[in-house]
Amino acid sequence: MRLTDFVPGSNDTNYEMLNLDKNGQPQNGQPQQPGAQPEGGGNNQFIKQDTLRGKLFFGERKGLTKYMDPECPCCPNMTKRYTIAILVSVGFVISFGSRCNIGVAQVKMFSNETGTPEFDWTSETVGVVDSSYFWGYIITQVPGGFLAAKYPANRVFGTAIALSAALNILLPSAAYIHPGAFVIIRIFQGFAEGVTYPACHGIWRHWAPPIERSKLATIAFCGSYGGLVLSMPVSGVLSSSFGWQSCFIFYGLAGVIWYVVWLWLSFEKPCMHPTISQEELIYIEESLGNVADNKITFETTPWKAIFMSMPVYAIIVANFCRSWTFYLLIVSQPKYFKDVFGMDVESSGFLGALPHLLMTMIVPLGGHFADTFRSTNRFTTTQVRKIFNCGGFGMEALFLVIMAQTSSHFIAMCCLILAVGFSGFAISGFNVNHLDIAPRYASILMGISNGFGTLAGMFCPIVTEKFTHDRANKPEEWASVFELAGTIHFLGVIFYAIFASGELQEWSEPPNDPNKIPNWKIRQMSIKQPSSAGPNSQAPANQLTSTGGAQPTAQAQVDIHGQTTAYPLSQQQQYGDWNNANQDWGDSSQTNQYDAQQQGYGSTGNYGEDGTARYRNY
Predict the structure, then answer these.
(1) Which residues of 55-75 are buried (b: 16+ CB within 10 A; e: fewer)?
(2) What are the distances in angstroms from CA 462 to CA 9, 48, 118, 176, 373?
(3) Do the Cβ atoms of 294 and 178 come closer than 8 Å?
(4) Average confidence score pLDDT of the chain
(5) CA-to-CA separations, 290 to 158, 305, 312, 381, 512, in angstroms, rounded
(6) What would the DSSP string read from start to end of 144-156?
(7) In terms of pLDDT, which residue wins out, 342 or 208?
(8) 581 near 517, Cβ under 8 Å?
(9) What are the tens digits of pLDDT across the range 240-249?
(10) Residue 72 and residue 265 in contact, taking contact as beta carbons nearer than 8 Å
(11) Is 97 buried (19+), middle (13-18) or exposed (0-12) by CB count in 10 A?
């Protein structure tokens, strides 16, 4: 069955109708008049609302959307899914900035520029402060993934960033109270931010079309590396100009402001966005296919299948390998350049930002290339993930080994930049792979794999300290450190190449519900039709045509403002060719009612066996 709908608030009824191909992509074709049946039937017809005058509002307005349209003022033509990707990226910039600015602040906190350091914490205390963040961070990885699967992932992600930012504002006061108070707040920051990566995948479960998963996810993730690049210079300037407290306050306020914007522009699902175009909504939902609406519980999660799945272990191993080098460079890179080449902290800090700056650019570029390869149909998703992951890790391992053997400062710096740059391509492999094999449980899988990655971040500094304890033989000791990192990456390449997969796993999704109606169709049927005689006259709503059954004759009652007040039902209607399959809805003598929920139109309720739909006051 094809639904042909009209949009209220416009006298122009010559709307362009577009076709979608089997992948949900718009096809070029001749515009069709409203109400015309396309050749060959089919239901892939929608109004390209982006080109219409005025605005369309479908969902229930809550919060800020009651007063302002959820439209980005900077980029009004940007699609909603890319708006969310940019906002997630900015959220990660703030998250990683607040995570790393403590290193710059400590320089001022413990300096003796006035003759006496402002704080006299011992080196053991400083070590506890530095590691306390990860105590909380590792604990909430798997629970965070479960929360993002059970509750709206966008709310989980935004609340985590906002809570961490608010705690960041309290850190200067806690430092004056007691080191223990500072440690406690850092632990709670770790608790909050531990859910961000799993929640990010929970967002893409509903918002990322399969062919755009790499691009959207990598745009979001590049904010992590951008945050590292910006945190050092921004925190340094703030600390020098306004005191070390200012860098904590700056990132805290930035997080709170970001949260307000996030609440305004983000929604759990496309069908809940009040101003999303029908074109984008249909494209996302048709490309995603069946996405179960029932909530995930601990009992219904297939834990045994998850921990018996080798593709899951391939992602875990890859995350551990990547995190080992990531934390090695964050923690030990300045020390390496000082011990081996005698560089001061300021110079090594500037040069150390270059690899992460390159990675910030490489990560979204790799995502674009990965999706381009997949769209050609010459490579399977599994092949693309393995090419990018193994290629990125392999080149990174190679340059780390060369870096370990060279005595040239220039060659070492070049190898470091190239190693980190190539690792950016691997993000389009393992870090997106969760959405391929189990989109329904992607947030949980991300929590599991990122938890093991955090373990790498905790063990790596300890192992590095064991290797570099002898101050008289630094070059050889640091060579062993980078040789170990290269070996870990080579092992990760082998494991991922053998066991990784890009195919949907059998345990990952519940069986398809043949009676489930896509959310976009529910919303499409709720659109009112203006009369050609004028906006104040009555007009039929939801003109539907059927290729396999009788034409519905339901008429809508419309008030003087064009608002529908009632939808009388026609009797004994049979709907054919629904969801591209000629389905008979059974005994038409049984009439049940289907209530389309106003909030997101996402609940399918009880659809009458005779196909009759009843709507309430939209």
Answers:
(1) ebebbeeeeebeeeebbbeee
(2) 66, 57, 29, 29, 40
(3) no
(4) 74
(5) 26, 21, 22, 19, 6
(6) HHHHHHHS-HHHH
(7) 208
(8) no
(9) 888 888 989 9
(10) yes
(11) buried
Please report, for residues 58, 524, 526, the alpha-carbon distance to residue 596 in angstroms, rounded to integers and kept in the order given: 12, 11, 9
Pairing of strands 544-545, 2-3: antiparallel
Tokens found for residue 572:
């004994």
- Fold for 298-507, please state it: Growth Hormone; Chain: A; (1.20.1250)
List Cβ neighbours of 546 (8 Å cut-off, separation of 6 or more): 1, 2, 552, 574, 575, 576, 577
pLDDT digits (tens, 9 = 90+) for 344-374: 655 666 677 788 888 999 999 999 999 999 9
In whole angstroms, what is the distance from residue 28 CA to residue 230 CA? Answer: 43
Beta strands in 449-604 (DSSP E): 544-545, 557-558, 564-566
Tokens of 542: 């939801």
The domain spans of the chain are 1-58+277-294+510-618, 74-110+124-274, 298-507
| Whole-number Cα distances in Å, 493 to 397, 405, 496, 582 | 9, 22, 5, 48
**Nearest C-alpha neighbor of 399 from the set 385, 418, 386, 381:** 418
Dihedrals phi, psi of 5, to nearest 5 degrees: -125, 160
Coil vs helix vs strand at 618: coil
Structure tokens at 340: 């081996």
Predicted confidence (pLDDT) per residue in 92-131, tens digit: 999 998 888 887 787 778 776 666 777 888 877 887 888 8
CATH topology match: 74-110+124-274 vs 298-507: yes
Is the full-model pTM beyond 0.85? no
User: Residue 122: its pLDDT value, please?
Assistant: 81
Of the chain, the end-to-end C-alpha distance in Å amounts to 23
Place of tokens 């000791």: 477
Spatial neighbors of 417 by CB under 8 A, at least 6 apart, are: 354, 355, 358
Task: Give the pLDDT score at 433.
Answer: 95
Is residue 551 over pLDDT 50?
Answer: no
* 138/402 Cα distance (integer angstroms): 32
Which stretches within 503-582 are classed as H helix?
A: 519-525
Give the span between the Cα atoms of 158 and 261, in whole angstroms: 10
Q: What is the mean predicted confidence (pLDDT) over 574-583?
A: 35
Residue range 74-110+124-274 in CATH 1.20.1250.20: yes
DSSP summary character for residue 49: G
pLDDT at 197 over 90: yes
What is the spatial distance between Cα 347 and Cα 357, in angstroms, rounded to a whole number? Answer: 16
3-state SS, residue 224: helix
**DSSP secondary structure letter of residue 16:** P
Of residues 320, 356, 98, the one with CA closest to residue 225: 356
* Gap between the Cα atoms of 446 and 435, Å rounded: 9
Q: Cα separation of 575 and 586, whole Å?
A: 10
